[in-house]
Design brief:
The structure is a single chain. The protein is α/β, with parallel strands linked by helices. The protein contains 22 helices and 9 strands. Strands 1-3-2-4-5 form a 5-stranded mixed beta sheet. The longest helix has 18 residues. The N and C termini lie far apart (about 70 Å). About 50% of the residues are buried. The mean pLDDT is about 90.
């Protein structure tokens, strides 16, 4: 049958691979399994076979595609610049079209509708809050119980929809702030620190009330229709700002790729998107945010895949930690995936657990009990695998703490 949708991997994307194999040692699932089919090269060969009509989109093909973390570490070393992330999203879109199921429909309802609905999210948040304050979490399956362990205590929303937070000192621009979906209520302390530091950096911070979920999870799961819808809504919501600031690495990577999902308007939008670490690092470099003279000790730094491999941001988080008075401790120079990867921990629990345990071991070997991570999924994965005795926070949170302490 071959491909049936316009979103399928293109011949240019798939055929760009020269089968050199440089991607193999960078791929987490290949390293764990040793299977060629669980490597980027193997997955591209499977896509090519479907395009040529050699094999069908069936359970075997689905297993090969669904095992991918979409960490995109392969793209960093690829000499042919294969757009592997785009090809994978196309393959997932084909799976959704050719192999519909109740499970996939339920997933699409979650990532395409629930995460974009404030009312439904409030209900989900209430359930999480009840679970955190009662013993009901103890009766949940171990997989869900582990997920609860990774979530921060639920707090009130820090970024109020429709609000504007004025710049402190000289104003340099207007920043639209992305609240995201679960970030807004499950990681509100990150939002509070980000807004405070943007104000210190000279930005008026605007929180558009009409914004919605970025759509990253929908795109990764092949939910094309809702991915387009969410992107188009956000493009309109952030039309009147100078920069778009986002403090979730996974969201930022997707927002910077809106050209594919919202055309020319999406491309113009993406050019204004910055990860919060980029904007704060710029402010530190220019002297708008002073560096601390206090030695606050070591911090283990974990690089989220969508910050390091996709956005290619490596130095900014480290510069922020140094400006706060901390000494970054490298735990993994290659920045291998922690295994969180959106819904991957739910859909591929065994592989996710192995990767999470390995990342936790790297942290333990660093002898630091504070870990800096710029992505909520990575933070949850680390917290659930490290357990008590470790604090996992966003780099900008540590800078905001340092600024408050230095101001006293």
């Amino acid at each position: 049958m071959g491909w049936v949708t316009e979103h399928a991997p293109t011949g240019a994307e798939v055929n760009a691979c020269v089968r050199c194999g440089l991607c193999l040692p960078e791929c987490p699932t290949f390293r764990l399994t040793g299977k060629e089919s669980f490597s980027p090269r193997g997955r591209l060969m499977a896509m090519s076979a479907v395009a040529d009509g050699v094999v069908e989109v069936d359970e075997s093909f689905a297993g090969i595609m669904d095992s991918c973390l979409q960490c995109r570490a392969c793209e960093v070393v690829c000499p042919s610049l294969v757009p592997f992330g785009r090809a994978m999203e196309g393959a997932r879109a084909e799976l959704a079209a050719q192999m519909p199921s109740r499970t996939r429909t339920a997933r699409h309802l979650l990532v395409g509708r629930v995460l974009g609905s404030p009312g439904l999210l409030r209900m989900a948040t209430l359930a999480v809050k009840v679970g955190q304050k009662t013993r009901v979490v103890r009766v949940l399956p171990s997989l869900l119980r582990s997920g609860f362990a990774g979530i921060r205590p639920v707090k009130p929303v820090a970024a109020q929809p429709g609000s504007t937070y004025r710049a402190l000192g000289q104003r340099i621009g207007r920043a639209g702030f992305v609240t995201g979906c679960v970030m807004d209520v499950w990681f509100s302390d990150v939002h509070a620190a980000s807004i405070a530091m943007l104000q210190r950096a000279g930005y008026d911070v605007v929180v558009p009330a009409t914004q919605t979920c970025c759509g990253a999870l929908a795109a990764h799961d092949g939910d094309v229709k809702d991915t387009h819808r969410l992107a188009e809504r956000n493009v309109v919501a952030f039309a009147n700002v100078d920069v778009v600031a986002v403090d979730s690495a996974g969201c930022g990577a997707h927002l910077k790729d809106y050209k594919h999902w919202a055309g020319q308007a999406g491309e113009l939008f993406s050019k204004r998107v910055f990860d919060i670490t980029e904007l704060i690092d710029q402010a530190i470099t220019s002297g708008r945010i002073p560096k601390s003279s206090v030695d606050r000790g070591p911090v283990a730094i974990q690089d989220p895949c969508h910050l390091r491999h996709v956005q290619r941001i490596v130095d900014a988080p480290r510069n922020i930690l140094r400006a706060a008075g901390y000494s970054p401790v490298e735990i993994d120079p290659d920045g291998r995936c922690c295994g969180a990867a959106g819904m991957y921990s739910l859909l591929q629990p065994e592989l996710s657990h192995q990767l999470g345990a390995a990342k936790a071991d790297q942290v333990r070997q660093s002898h630091a009990n504070v870990v800096a991570s710029a992505n909520p999924g990575c933070e949850m994965q680390l917290r659930s695998h490290l357990g008590k005795g470790y604090e996992i926070v966003h780099p900008v949170e540590l800078l905001w703490r340092a600024v408050q302490e230095d101001d006293r």
